[in-house]
Design goal:
The protein folds into two domains: about 200 residues, no CATH class; about 160 residues, no CATH class. The chain starts with 20 loop residues before the first helix and ends with a helix. The radius of gyration is 21 Å and the shape is globular. Helix 1 packs across helix 16. It has a six-stranded antiparallel beta sheet with strand order 7-8-9-10-12-11, with helices on both faces. A three-stranded antiparallel beta sheet has the order 4-1-14. The protein has a three-stranded antiparallel beta sheet with strand order 3-2-13. It is α+β, with helices and mostly antiparallel strands.
Length: about 425
């Protein structure tokens, strides 16, 4: 293969060249440039994150995943079943959090906090009503691509995929409860987030100058455009006003201290994401941090059509439909940036919030973890179902696995071809 990267986007129609990794890599670059056009400095940063592994690439390439299914319709076919789906489903779309971010647990003992920490699905930016098989297929694909980070060879990864699929089916169709014994990685994660204090969250993201906290500008935060800074107070106030009365913080506690562009995520990187630091309980250590995140059409719209909902309301609705104990302060607002009105999903960041780190997992823990993640997704699908078919047969699960193998192979090839192009784009080290 030539080391000279071809021009981005030269292929034209996104539905063509679905068998050509180079064309797909170029398509990914085109999508990423479009995604980061408002904040072009984030283009290289997104490429750096996606180049770390095939799974990291999958995380950042949800739109292309569904374009692939559009170009390979046979891979999108499969057994019936419909309802709210996550859309951008993958191994790292699970995490620990506290459902009641403004409850007494701010000052509670570690023992009390332990009861309040949950582990579940936690990212619904791409949620949409659609076939269950799309979520199951994407999760299975991520499991196969994540084999290296999991320390698993191909045989082990396929066995883990079987465990995940079977656990999903038991939860989705049989109402099987979640395993009573948490996998060790989840136990460790909940212990980790339980022990993290609110002050530690503030110290990790802010600094105190002249007795007041502010976000530290750097890899995690940057200055917002002036027009956005001016619009934040009204947008944030609209979010607070729309909250249920029992969720609304007391007057004065949500006075804004600082706001900044939040640089986080992989697939979402490039959209407008605003970190808002408010007064909270007062004083340098009493503040609360909120996340306002731009929402648009979900990636699966390519296949399923655009939902007829305000984007941020779609995220809030799906979160509450799929998760047994969602965070209590989920909400939405809108903000104008350069004359464009953007729909923003809002939630409060909690010190008790973290995601799985695949690189820290032990081989002996993988079977129980794959089983648990499959069961969680199956429970979410059952909870938010609109059409429940007869139970999927073993042949149906085998079809999903076969399609995941094909998609994993395509993504692996595109990832490597994308890395080849990145060699001419990323800064030399």
């Amino acid at each position: 293969m030539s080391k000279t990267a071809p021009a981005e986007g030269k292929q034209g129609s996104k539905a063509t060249h679905m068998h050509d990794p180079g064309a797909l890599a170029d398509r990914q670059l085109t999508l990423d440039r479009e995604r980061t056009k408002r904040f072009p400095d984030l283009f290289i940063r997104k490429l750096q994150r996606m180049s770390s592994s095939p799974l990291a690439y999958l995380r950042g390439a949800a739109p292309l995943f569904f374009e692939l299914l559009q170009g390979h319709p046979e891979l999108a076919e499969g057994p019936a079943g419909e309802g709210w789906i996550v859309g951008d489903m993958h191994l790292e779309n699970f995490g620990a959090y506290r459902p009641d971010p403004l409850g007494a647990a701010d000052d509670a003992s570690p023992k009390d906090n332990a009861k309040k920490v949950r582990f579940d699905l936690n990212d619904f930016d791409d949620a949409i009503v659609g076939p269950w098989r799309l979520d199951v297929l994407r999760l299975a694909t991520s499991l196969l691509l994540g084999g290296r980070e999991l320390g698993a060879n191909g045989l082990v990864a396929l066995s883990l995929c079987d465990l995940m699929l079977e656990a999903w089916a038991r939860s989705a169709f049989d109402g099987a409860p979640l395993p009573t014994e948490l996998p060790p990685p989840i136990v460790a994660l909940t212990e980790q987030v339980r022990a993290r204090s609110k002050t530690a969250l503030l110290d990790a993201r802010t600094a105190v100058t002249g007795g007041k906290r502010h976000f530290v500008r750097g890899p995690r935060y940057a200055d917002l455009p002036a027009d956005v800074v001016a619009a934040v107070p009204e947008a944030f106030s609209a979010y607070i006003t729309a909250l249920a009365e029992e969720d609304r913080p007391h007057k004065g506690s949500h006075d804004i201290v600082d706001c900044a562009l939040r640089i986080a995520g992989t697939g979402s990187l490039g959209g407008l994401r605003i970190a808002v630091l408010v007064k909270g309980k007062g004083g340098p250590d009493g503040g609360w941090i909120f996340d306002m995140k731009e929402q648009g059409e979900p990636s699966a719209s390519t296949l399923l059509g655009a939902p007829k909902m305000v984007p941020a309301d779609r995220v809030t609705t799906s979160f509450r439909a799929c998760v047994e104990r969602p965070p209590s302060m989920l909400g939405s607002t809108s903000i104008v940036m350069s004359t464009e009105k953007l729909s923003m999903f809002v939630r409060k960041l909690s010190p008790q919030e973290d995601k799985l780190n695949l690189r820290r997992l032990k081989g002996e823990d993988l079977p129980s973890l794959a089983t648990y993640l499959g069961a969680l997704l199956g429970s979410a699908h059952a909870r938010a179902a609109t059409k429940v078919p007869k139970r999927w047969a073993a042949a149906d699960l085998a079809t999903i696995r076969a399609h995941a193998i094909a998609l994993a192979g395509i993504h692996e090839a595109v990832y490597l071809d994308l890395c080849e192009r990145m060699r001419t784009l990323l800064p030399k080290t």
